[in-house]
């Protein structure tokens, strides 16, 4: 069934599919880890049970989201060796160590403290448990740091030299590779996106429960915290996005040309095209709704500043304009919608109607998944806008793929689609089920199973008996079990 398709196209679709699934979970878990850190810190500082209840409520959700993020991310690394072996061979000396640093620093840090965070609330001291939560949150940040450094180097490759065998090799300084020109902007923009994604999920859950019970203190608190995040971070994100766009214009001008829909150059000021239908063959945007010279004002801070168009770029180096044009508008549109919700919540606070304004709650509920849509749209803008290069300006995507036949790639793609929708669909359904439960006083958090660990050495002997004591049979519960009521308390 895949004989008539292109193996390169299938490989690109497969990587895009797996990345899109994977990106959803870290975009949530990175922000949620920081939110958990804040909740536990507020509990330790104030002693209020409400913060501890919210911590335990979201800890269960974090555990599932984190696990699905890890599982979905492992798969992608194998694709570098299967579908993109040429890329791995050529770029491996540069990107390989960076990805290894992510495992050695972030993944090991998270793995080392995650168990304490999830199961150690009653096993270690409060401060030590809070330290474990902080380490997990730090680990998610470090993971984003290294992965975004790799991706940014592929967008703006510097600091390398070309080996005699055609490989990209590290130059004199790794710092130039790590802190490449687009990395700081992409790191800030992406991290803010994860915080907003989490904020709107938390806000949607709070709104859901407020619509059913406006007096619920847990729902009121989570909704209030989420709306503060929206009101503060959304305008900062728009500013960071603007700075990132200016950096992209400097280093990847054709990506910005595609984002703006500028097929033609504009020597006397370029219009801002709000909507339209890009036609790459006719080199125009049909039915364009535009604001004269506004694009030059945004990108050059001058109404009459000239802007080059795609007519200055060879046809075989143009990115797919239609995809980039619309994904960019989806991302920006959601960003301004988030800003609107944040400002609306501030108005609700001023009028003392934050917890009574049903329309605000409904809007926040609708905006719950908006962060996920925005980060996927932003990823599409970034990656499709880089085409036809996998390493911008140096290695074409067509030259980076493995020499595979279409049926081989297509079969694995089909398997991924079936397995991903089954496994992660169930996981997402369970997360939504947890969110539908009303938060309450005395949340239990993550619990171990009642059966306890598996004993592979037979029956655990009972306690040593004193001479003359009546003999008892050893039990599976072990010497530390004081009775049935203690089982599963861990």
TrEMBL record:
Polar residues bias spans: 462-475
One Gene Ontology cellular component: cytochrome complex
Keyword Transport on entry: yes
Alphabetic keyword roster: Cell membrane, Electron transport, Heme, Iron, Membrane, Metal-binding, Transmembrane, Transmembrane helix, Transport
Localisation: Cell inner membrane; Cell membrane
Domain of life, source organism: Bacteria
Major subcellular site: membrane
Residue span of region Disordered: 442-490
GO annotation (BP), single: aerobic electron transport chain
Pfam families per the UniProt record, alphabetical: Cyt_bd_oxida_I (PF01654)
Molecular functions (GO terms): electron transfer activity; heme binding; metal ion binding; oxidoreductase activity, acting on diphenols and related substances as donors, oxygen as acceptor
InterPro entries membership: Cyt-d_ubiquinol_oxidase_su_1
Entry annotated with the keyword Acetylation: no
Membrane topology type: Multi-pass membrane protein
Entry's transmembrane regions: 15-36, 57-78, 98-121, 128-148, 192-211, 223-240, 323-347, 359-380, 413-432
Family (UniProt): Belongs to the cytochrome ubiquinol oxidase subunit 1 family.
Protein name from the UniProt record: Cytochrome ubiquinol oxidase subunit I
